[in-house]
Amino acid sequence: MTAIELGNVRKTFRVKGGLLGADRHVVAVDDVSFAVPTGGVLGIVGESGCGKSTLARLILGLLQPDRGSIAVEGQRVAAMDRRARARLIQPVFQDPFASLNPMTRVRDIVAMPLKAQGNFGAADVRRRVDEMLARVGLSAEMGRRLPAELSGGQRQRVAIARALVLRPRIVVCDEPTSALDVSVQAQILNLLAELRRELGLTYLFISHNLAVVEHVASEVAVMYLGRFVERAPTERLFGEPEHPYTRALLASVLTPEPGLGVPDVGLGDTLPDPANIPAGCRFHPRCPIAEPRCAVESPPLKARPGGGVECLLV
Amino acid sequence: MSIATASRGARRGERRSPRRGWRSASTWIGAAIVAIAAFCAVFAPLLMPHDPFAQDLGKRLLVPFWMEGSDPEHLLGTDQLGRDYLSRLIYGCRISMLIGVTVSVVSGVIGITLGVLGGFFGGRVDDAVLFAITTRLSIPVVLVALAVVGLLGSSMTLLVATLGLLLWDRFAVVARSTTMQVRNLDFVAAAWCAGCSRFRILLHEVLPNIASHLVVVATLEIALAILLEAALSFLGLGVPPPLPSWGLMIAEAKDYMFFSPWVIVIPGVALFVLVLGINLFGDGLRDSFGARSDP
Amino acid sequence: MTALLEIEQLQVSFGSTAAVRGASLSVARGETHCLVGESGCGKSVTALSVMNLLAPNARRSAKRLAFEGQDLLGLSDSGMANLRGNAMAMIFQEPMTSLNPAYTVGSQMTEVLRRHKRASQRAATDRAADLLARVGITAPGLRLGQFPHQLSGGLRQRVMIAMALMCEPRLLIADEPTTALDVTVQAQILRLLSRLQRDLGLGMLLITHDLGIVARVAHRVSVMYAGEVVESAPTAELFANPRHPYTQGLLRCVPVPGRIKRDEPLGSIPGTVPRIAPGFAGCAFRERCAFADESCSSAIPRHRPSAAHDFLCRLPA
Q: How many domains does chain C have?
């Protein structure tokens, strides 16, 4: 059973070119296809601007793709009623200071998805909110507070409670712990893992922190300038990375092991510009092993067990 | 500028200086003036010592209490028709506040609706709203108000309707830009994902978070409407006499100002103090809201 | 030889809230000293109080606060301004807020040198171009004429580092210099900082919450909690033999590739950093500590298992 399925999804944004300049097209997601099985956790890693958040918003139905199909639990997202969609898929966003309405009390934030459904009685709403708050480790007293009166970790618990109160099948986590301290990050990651096991959830887990992704994901996709350049089961991706970009990302992880020094990532200074995607392999200007043909030929997708890699040289 | 001074400036700027918002004396002075004016407006019939319309030609142009030969019956003296000036001032306050508030409500409803719709939906809707705003900004308010009142005759309802239809631009601009900021925040995205309808999102997520900005605009619009009403009344095209609006009182007094200067000074000072008070109060509100919306 | 920077018993408070409560640490010449802890534990306030850049409502006091043996507490504002950006420089987390958007990179860089060293515009420009090249920026001539918003986050942070080095500082304070950057850029910037630190013999106080960064670049680590330095040790020693329960907890929170199994819960520290009220006594970590008992609310001794390692806990082992 597939929980999330994307087929050839492409999304571009138009950027106004100022007074005289022509409008430019920024390709955020470029022909991406993948499927996540029910109960799986797909981790998506990549640098800022690689399109991972756009991908999350497409799957949540917050953005419409230019072309391609997006389906959750076999139903097309675009064709779904907003209430039905809300019962299937929910988000947890990065910044717990921006993702909660500052004027609304915690209880009402968690109750919002239930009220939007329109068929829950007041007592039922109250009971479900109480249950959910307790489940994410918040006291009833905290339910009466405003978001500004909570710490970052508590706010993220509220966001998780809001996401799970309708018992959805899929949760899209967009950098859910990047804004938190390590100690709090560990609490939230543990909570997300427990809830997934208990409720049989499927996660799409977006992060720039490879150590976190390795910990939570069953398979990982590496995104670069709108494309999945490598996708593999977690053990394989971390054990035998093939794409030079994946290898560079792994090399740049600073594990708490003293004496190793800071590794040389070898990517050079040129940063990826989504408005100006290079011809051939889009990674070639930064690639430490690039050959002349990488600037001309587009790399085909080479199949690998449980995934694939897009590179001419592997 | 060196790194150190630059960062120091930035850090200083981040923390609000302690003499802003509710901690500043000017906010409290403004609030006190607005409170007194609102009290006078609401309880005018109880506060007035005399009937503001009752003429007594035997007691024309009596001097106020601080001048020699004043009548203790009439604290602020009387006008050219012998009407008690204090009573007219209090009743005029009621008229001015009534016009200020109703104009602000009418223009607020128009401006906030347009601005929120434009800011929230963007695209074509926003283009239409922007066109309406620029059109409105190119209309000279006083000229149109003069023409309308001149053609249709003066009445309070007409005055409120005209000013209300002309003064919504600031509401629209502020509502549009704040809505655009709030619309892109993650909690609005979360509300979409929770299956909320557009109406629910506008009402529960967007409006409460832009309300503070709109309250500030409303105070400024009240002050502006009061001044415009006074100007139109002064030109004889505002509130129809014998209603004692402050603008009308100034207009009626201008013939006597050389021999009885207080008849023009009293409503003039009252108008100045009220508008100043509303503006101080509005500035204070803006600063206190600004402090709260800082993360 | 005296240390480059000595902080002894530093106290900083904002109103009735104590942000730093008797923190002591010292940075030697040519040493990278990392200050690590959760947000709100007083790391940044400690750094800012060295630079005398605290908000006007802050109160700062210390038994000793000295730079190259010179007392900083009694120093006048102008004396401090002469040191700042000159002998000691600071770089911040978000370079965009510390660069002035209205001036070109070149004019901001040369201004520092012209102000502190009375250098000519030409000499200053040459040095700026030289330093930009040194921090790994290609085409420095082009970058000098650009405005901050025309640069990427990584480039801006490099510009900030180059700018901090303009007057050949002896002490560099870096407050979360790579937190806003991507992992690949972070590795590049940290590599650059370590190289510069080694080549120029800089003393560096690096503030971070990332234990990975600490392990890779620090010579010495101080762990801060609720305004106190709860443990301080050479890096290898701290990671091999953490003694304070807070340090141990922090180390268990970090997912280490290959060491922690998938779906196995990470170690975590329950609760959050407390707000310290006036008159607070004892260990500030006791509410979150698994080993806490009644004796933790009385005065806590500082243990020294070795000459270079000390920690603040009632537990000797």
A: 1
Backbone phi, psi, residue C275, to 5°: -90, 125
List all residues 6 or more positions away from A145 whose beta carbon is below 8 Å from its beta carbon.
A105, A106
SS3 A141: helix
Contact C103, C137 (CB under 8 A): no
Contact at CB, B193 and A104, closer than 8 angstroms: no
All domains in chain B, ordered by first residue: 21-49+81-293 (1.10.3720.10)
Q: Chain C residues with CB inside 8 Å of A197's CB? A: 263
- Predicted confidence (pLDDT) at residue B95 exceeds the cutoff of 50: yes
Q: Per the omega criterion (within 30 degrees of 0), is the bond before A233 cis?
A: no
Domain that holds residue C258: 5-77+202-312
Distance CA A29, CA A225 (A): 8
Pair type for strands A75-76 and C203-208: unpaired
Tell me the pairing of strands C5-14 and C64-67.
antiparallel
Tell whether the model's pLDDT for residue C13 goes beyond 60: yes
**Residue B291 scores a pLDDT above 50:** no
Which residues, at least 6 apart from A235, have a Cβ–Cβ distance to it below 8 Å?
none
Bridge partners (DSSP) listed for residue C222: C35, C232
Q: Are A108 and A102 in contact (CB under 8 A)?
A: no
Q: Which residues have CB under 8 Å from A196's CB, separation 6+?
A: A41, A203
CATH assignment of the domain containing C274: 3.40.50.300
- Taking an 8 Å cut-off on Cβ atoms, the answer to whether A257 and C239 are in contact is yes
Q: Which residue has the higher pLDDT, A43 or B250?
A: A43
> Please, are residues B279 and B31 in contact by the beta-carbon 8 Å criterion?
no
Which segments within C186-300 are labelled E, that is strand?
A: 203-208, 220-225, 228-234
Minimal Cα–Cα distance from C9 to chain B, Å?
24
Q: Residue B290: pLDDT band by 50, 70, 90 thresholds?
A: low
Question: Would you list the DSSP string of B125-182?
Answer: HHHHHHHHHHHHHTS-HHHHHHHHHHHH---HHHHHHHHHHHS-HHHHHHHHHHHHHH
Tell which CATH classification among 1.25.40.10, 3.40.50.300, 3.10.20.600, 3.30.70.20 matches the domain A2-96+168-310: 3.40.50.300
With a cut of 70, say whether residue B6 has pLDDT above it. no
Rg of chain B's alpha carbons, rounded to an integer?
A: 23
Residue C150 lies in a domain: no
Q: Is the pLDDT of residue B106 over 80?
A: yes
Query: Please, which residues have CB within 8 angstroms of residue B275's CB and are 6 or more apart in sequence?
Result: B223, B226, B227
Write down the pLDDT at residue A205.
95
Which residues of chain A have a pLDDT value below 50?
none
User: Would residue C50 count as lying in a domain?
Assistant: yes
Tell me which of B184, B185, B187 to substitute to probe the interface with A (most A C-beta atoms closer than 10 Å). Answer: B187
Q: How many residue pairs bridge chain A and chain B with CB atoms within 8 Å of each other?
A: 71
Please check whether residue C243 lies inside any domain of the structure. Answer: yes
Whole-number Å distance between alpha carbons of B175 and B170: 8
Residue A239 and residue A237: Cα distance in Å, rounded?
A: 6
Instruction: Determine the pLDDT at residue C73.
Output: 87
Q: Where are the beta strands (DSSP E) in C15-63?
A: 17-27, 32-36, 58-61
* Closest among A193, A174, A168 to A48, alpha carbons compared: A174
Q: In what order do the strands lie in the sheet with A2-15?
A: A24-37, A2-15, A67-72, A75-76
